[in-house]
Amino acid sequence: MSLNKERRIGRLAVMMLLDDDKERTLEIVKELGWTTCTGKVGSMEASKVVAAIETAARKNEIVKTGVYREGHALYHAIIEALHGVTRGQVQLGSVLRTVGLSFAIVRGEPYDSSEEGEWIAVSLYGTIGAPMKGAEHETIGLGINHI
What we know:
Layout: H1 9-18, H2 22-31, E1 35-43, H3 46-59, H4 68-85, E2 98-108, E3 119-129, E4 136-146
Antiparallel strand pairs: 1-2, 2-3, 3-4
Function: Antiterminator that binds to cis-acting regulatory sequences on the mRNA in the presence of histidine, thereby suppressing transcription termination and activating the hut operon for histidine utilization.
GO molecular function: mRNA binding
Protein name: Hut operon positive regulatory protein
């Protein structure tokens, strides 16, 4: 079991958000035969962030609707990424915080052996802070889970 340096799924998910040349990163993902999508979400409710990412993943056919293990893997990757964004406390509105995030979802096989199967990565980048303009700071999160 060896993680292939050319197929670091988390790195590619973060690059989809941060790279100034997103088309180059998208080409790499497509050359690998992987699937990806990006989007934006802003909310004071973590459930709305989760829903927006899950909806994008299903609409872009990154996960199959009705296949439990795929939705379950996506959910855990989202929650792990949210832990990074919220510094371990997945709370927003209840503690008077709001987020404005861009997200990327990447699905592929990051290991040399195909027996290791597919994995999914969710990256989040944006701002978090009090629900008033100018009272926020940058934040980032990454979640990776096997399907």
